[in-house]
Amino acid sequence: MTTLDLAFVRSQFPAFAEASLQGQAFFENAGGSYTAKPVIDRLTRFYHQRKVQPYAPYAASQLGGAEMDEARDRLAAMMGIDRDELSFGPSTSANTFVLAQAVRQWLRGTDGAIVVTNQDHEANSGVWRRLADDGIEIREWQIDPETGHLDPAGLATLLADGRVRLVCFPHCSNVVAEINPVAEVCAMARGAGAYTCVDGVSYAPHGFPDMGALGADVYLFSAYKTYGPHQGIMVIRRGFGDLLPAQGHYFNAGTLYKRFTPAGPDHAQIAACAGMADYIDALHAHHFAAEPDARLRNNAVHDLMRAHEVALLQPVLDHLAARNDLRLIGPRRAEGRAPTVAVALDRAAEPVAAALAPFGVMAGGGDFYAVRPLTAMGVDLERGVLRLSFVHYTSEAEVAQLMSALDRVL
Question: If you write DSSP's letter for every residue of 142-205 in order, what string do you get?
Fold first, then answer.
């Protein structure tokens, strides 16, 4: 089995050569990852050479437009979708908000219902819940208050009467971190006549999605958490996207990705997103034989990244589970979860995160906009949780540094 070459991986991220970050182990990746060098290079080039209105009939403009097209083409190919099924926006929260306004128009005056969970980050929960103001029924798929687990049997009950039109749920929560069975849930919803909207923000940093395998109608994630610039990325499949009322300029309604882009996109950051594809392709070329299919390259890199993360995560989970002064949120087995580890302490979490900093550990404390799942699990919001999150560029030495620091601080 191919093993991730960590030295090669870290050579792709300028942060690891930055003098000010030496000795600092980064464990708040769920809030935003380091940026890959190809992304930085593309963004710099765009601002230096191509920061003009794109698609005009002169060289700088044509080159800028071509780079934007390249980003859309290559990311779409990686995820196995048509290029116009990929929308860019200022953030995932903004993309979800725009999508919710389209759904509001679609379902207003009908007896259709929407399922949300109490496992979600508020960005993929609050906007849907507010549609109740227009008389749209909102049904809550609830987590187990002890484990945070979302049981598909609970969804089956909510779907039983055939009135649900949309199911909104996370690929994994940003505090529970259990990887939900997306393909199974999407198949259940489809069988009941419902579409699906998956919040992939907390999962995509651990591998870009294969949309054909997942079967979701919408999949949302954030480029700044997947080694890219600060953009939100929304995959919306044609069957659902064409059904919804357009939210952009009326004369752009014939282009799927423009239907849900009401404001002018950030040209430079869209172009820089091609650097994420550069990075995935560089990992594949370094570790595997040549493969012409971008989706298969992406899937191979996904598995490579996940294997490394799982190997590093299990010792962390075991170490935390052995302590009697904290509550470990989510599954105890690394294979079933993302390496985003939240713990509830017997004290406020944010000062603990601050106390870790002198030991070279960068972590966070608070509610992380996951107020609903933390409340459902009985976590004191005044204390919040300490969140320790990493990705595939994290090293075994950094994990040891984290556990040593935790023992000293706690």
Answer: PPPTTT----HHHHHHHHTTS-EEEEEEESB-TTT-BB--HHHHHHHHHHTT-EEEEE-TTTGG
Q: What percent of the chain has pLDDT over 70?
A: 100
Q: How far apart are the C-alpha atoms of 273 and 330, rounded to whole Å?
A: 32
Three-point CA angle 210, 212, 215, nearest 5°: 105
Q: How far apart are CA 341 and CA 204, in angstroms?
A: 16
Strand ranges (DSSP E) for 78-119?
86-89, 113-117
In this structure, are strands 364-366 and 385-389 parallel, antiparallel, or unpaired?
A: antiparallel
Kindly tell me if the per-residue pLDDT of 81 is higher than 80: yes
Helix (H) or strand (E) holding 397: helix 396-409
CA–CA separation, 48 and 77 (whole Å): 28
Residue 401 in contact with residue 25, Cβ under 8 Å? yes
Tell me: the pLDDT tens digits for 262-283? 988 899 999 999 999 999 999 9
Q: Which H or E element spans position 305?
A: helix 294-321
Tokens read off for 160:
């039983």
Q: Is 26 helix (H, G, I), strand (E, B) or coil?
A: strand
Give the dihedral sign, CA 86/89/91/94.
Answer: negative
